[in-house]
Amino acid sequence: MQPKVSIIVPIYNVEKYLNCCVDSLLNQTLTELEIILVDDGSPDHCPEICDEYAKQDHRVKVVHKKNGGQGYARNSGIETATGEYIAFVDSDDYVDADTYQKLYSIATDTKADGVYFTYQRFNDRGDTWGGTTIRKKTLYHTEEDIRRLMLDMIASPPETKSDRDIECSSCCALYRTDIIKRHGLGFKSERELHSEDLLFNLDFLTHAASIAFIPDALYHYRENPSSFCHTIRADVVERERFYYQYLKDWLSANKFGLDGYLRATRHFIGDSRSSIRQYIQSPLPGKEKKQWLKETVNHSCWKEIASSYPYRQLPLKYALYFYLLHKGCHRLLYHLSATGRVRY
């Protein structure tokens, strides 16, 4: 019998959290599942833990591969998947017990090609936070509706208070497998394009005819300081500039026009602001951080954006931050970022 949902879990160096993650999948109220554990060349005991789960439950499949990053590990899982729908879970997170029962029921009841939901963040101290500003179930049935959803996933219009209303994570969605396989969809490497989740979702939504969104926080995202996305890199803003150009080109090729440019640019401004704050608040030496910020603000991209993007329409604190950025006021920006006065 074909599984209703294939759940793909890329795994690397998370033996401390892996049991919590996999147990939350094995205990789902929807039992017609296929759980694909992709060992991405993990150097700890994760490969053995995965194999032990496969011995204990026939629904568990294990793929062992050479390390290539999370995106490529997910692609290996897609190749293996046989379910009607595909879902992704990161190996240090977990989901509510009724998650896939609820999502599958909504997908079949509404004939949706995808169902999006939201998440709650937590840490090992027991703190929880996050969610979504959208409070009701929403259905997107037309091409116009879905293209609007795509823009909202990228970023908000300039004048909107929050940088985006819909957080885009591939872990907070259920995808029709046929669309993914028929169109050869997959993930880029996060080592090359840092927001590979967004790109995957944009590619998927391009081919979807109907989408459902529910505001339920069914996914629990662990703030793991050792994960790839929390690694401090001196080239972080340069990587975001590369991604920004890629995203603009994609939106232009798909005829999103001025709206596409405005959303991509706010995405870049917001991510850069967040990355600058994270870098300045890191434990690196102050002299090194100040020199890094001085070089960052002197890049010509900020003046180019200031000449074409209506940054003055941004919420006041964000407009002020960008003004200081494109004017090269690195000392004041350092102070604001170090104190956390302007947050993402």
Helix fraction, binned, reads 40-55%
- Indicate the mean pLDDT: 92
For the termini, the CA-CA separation is: 46 Å
Largest sheet: 10 strands, mixed
Please compute the radius of gyration using only Cα atoms.
Answer: 21 Å
CATH class of the largest domain: Alpha Beta
Number of strands: 10
What does it look like?
The chain has 344 residues and is α/β, with parallel strands linked by helices. It folds into two domains: 5-132 and 167-228, Spore Coat Polysaccharide Biosynthesis Protein SpsA, Chain A (Alpha-Beta Complex), CATH 3.90.550; 232-339, no CATH class. It contains 13 helices and ten strands. Strands 1, 2, 3, 4, 5, 6, 7, 8, 9 and 10 form a ten-stranded mixed beta sheet that branches. The longest helix is centred in the C-terminal third of the chain and has 24 residues, at 257-280. The chain is globular and about 60 Å long. The model has no long low-confidence stretch (mean pLDDT 92).
Can you lay out the helices and strands and say which pair or pack?
Layout: E1 5-11, H1 18-26, E2 33-39, H2 46-56, E3 60-64, H3 70-80, E4 85-88, E5 94-95, H4 99-110, E6 114-122, E7 128-129, E8 138-140, H5 143-154, E9 173-176, H6 177-182, H7 196-207, E10 211-222, H8 236-253, H9 257-280, H10 286-297, H11 301-308, H12 316-326, H13 330-339
Parallel strand pairs: 1-2, 1-4, 2-3, 6-10
Antiparallel strand pairs: 4-9, 5-10, 6-7, 6-9, 8-10
Quick summary:
The chain is α/β, with parallel strands linked by helices and about 350 residues long. The protein has two domains: about 5-130 and about 165-230, Spore Coat Polysaccharide Biosynthesis Protein SpsA, Chain A (Alpha-Beta Complex), CATH 3.90.550; about 230-340, no CATH class. It has helices at about 20-25, 45-55, 70-80, 100-110, 145-155, 175-180, 195-205, 235-255, 255-280, 285-295, 300-310, 315-325, 330-340, and strands spanning about 5-10, 35-40, 60-65, 85-90, 95, 115-120, 130, 140, 175, 210-220.
